[in-house]
Every structure is written in structure tokens, then in C-alpha cells.
Amino acid sequence: MSSPNIKFIDGVEWRRIRFLQYRANWKHPFGQLISLYTGLYNWGTPPYCHSEICFSNSICFSAANRKDGFIGTRYIDYEILTRNKKRWDIYELWVPADKEERMIGRASRIINKGYDWLGIIGFFSPKNIQDKNKWYCSECVYYVYNEKNIRISPRRLTRWILRIGGKLVSRKGRLIC
């Protein structure tokens, strides 16, 4: 049985990964604040306030502070995460299978780490403040892909996704062809 998330090119296995970007909205004032402030430094990017990476097995990874009480890095099923598809924009990128395996390994090394509230506050501070043992969403998504830990907002992450060849495939729940 063939998977839409796996393809072979010249004998090399490639896997589809997705970057999910959550659109800030009025129901989440803190997300709106993050999006507005980080937008000052990322003109022309959509109003995102949260980021996820989704592997070819449809398991997503990020750091979150969820209403259900979970705080920190975690895995979540794609269908559960995107049950309100109109709030998400989805970018896709094909990577060699061994790259995805390394990404999954990096995610596993930082699973169940705390949420980096200092890092979020750092967006509003001229100083680079953050907790090196905790993570916020776009920071851990970037790390999982690159194995580099940098301060990066969801809006700046979008610029990077496009620069590495990511393609916007769904905007607010609508497929883009």
C-alpha cells in the first residue's frame, strides 16, 4: 500500500513533512500580541502566533501551553491538532527519509520539556532572555529541523520555511493548488 507522505526518486526515499502555522485571532489576545509585536520585525508575513512540525506519520511536535493543562513540548496527532482547519496554514516540504529520522530523534530528546515563558517574554525585551532547558513553539520546531537553538518567532519561522523550499498548500483550511 502506497502512502501519500512517501515517494521514491532515483531509489531514495523522500518523506513529506508539514509545518503548521496557527493564525492569531481575537479569541486569543496573548497570541494576537505575539503576532502583532513580532510582525514589526517581519513585515509581509501572515499573522501567526504558534508553530508545529508534522512528520510523515501524521504526528506533530511542538511546545504549547494548552487549555487542557499540558504545558511544554509534546506530540499530538495531526487530526486532533487541526480539528479547526480554518485557523491553520500548512506548508509542506519533502525531505530524505534519513533527515526525517534525525528530526524525530531530536524531538524525542526534548519531549516533555517545560514551556519557555522567559523566551516568550524575550520577544518584548531588548535582551535575549530565555530558559535554555525549556522551549516555545517556533524555537523547538526550528531546532527539530536544524539542530540549532535560536530565538525565532512563528512569523520569522515562516520566512525561513519558504527560504528552504516549503510550499504553502493550505490556507485557512482551503487547499492551494
SSE map:
Layout: E1 6-9, E2 12-23, H1 29-39, E3 48-54, E4 59-65, E5 71-77, H2 78-81, E6 88-96, H3 97-109, H4 117-122, H5 137-146, H6 154-163, E7 167-171, E8 174-175
Overview of this protein structure:
The chain has 177 residues and is an alpha+beta fold. It has a single domain, classed as endopeptidase fold (from Nostoc punctiforme) (Alpha-Beta Complex). 31% of the residues lie in helices and 30% in strands. The protein is built from 6 helices and 8 strands. Strands 1, 2, 3, 4, 5, 6, 7 and 8 form an 8-stranded antiparallel sheet that branches. Strand 4 and strand 5 form a beta hairpin. Helix 3 crosses helix 5. The longest helix has 13 residues. The two termini are 25 Å apart. The model has no long low-confidence stretch (mean pLDDT 89).
What features would you highlight for this structure?
177 residues; alpha+beta; endopeptidase fold (from Nostoc punctiforme); eight-stranded antiparallel beta sheet; 6 helices; 8 strands
Content of β-strand: 25-35%
**How many distinct folded domains?**
1
What best-fitting shape do the alpha-carbon axes yield? globular
Largest sheet features: 8 strands, antiparallel
How many strand units? 8
CATH class: Alpha Beta
The fold-level CATH name is endopeptidase fold (from Nostoc punctiforme)
Our Rg estimate from Cα atoms comes to 16 Å
Secondary structure category: alpha+beta
Low-confidence stretches: none
> What is the CATH architecture assignment?
Alpha-Beta Complex
Which percent range fits the helix content? Answer: 25-40%
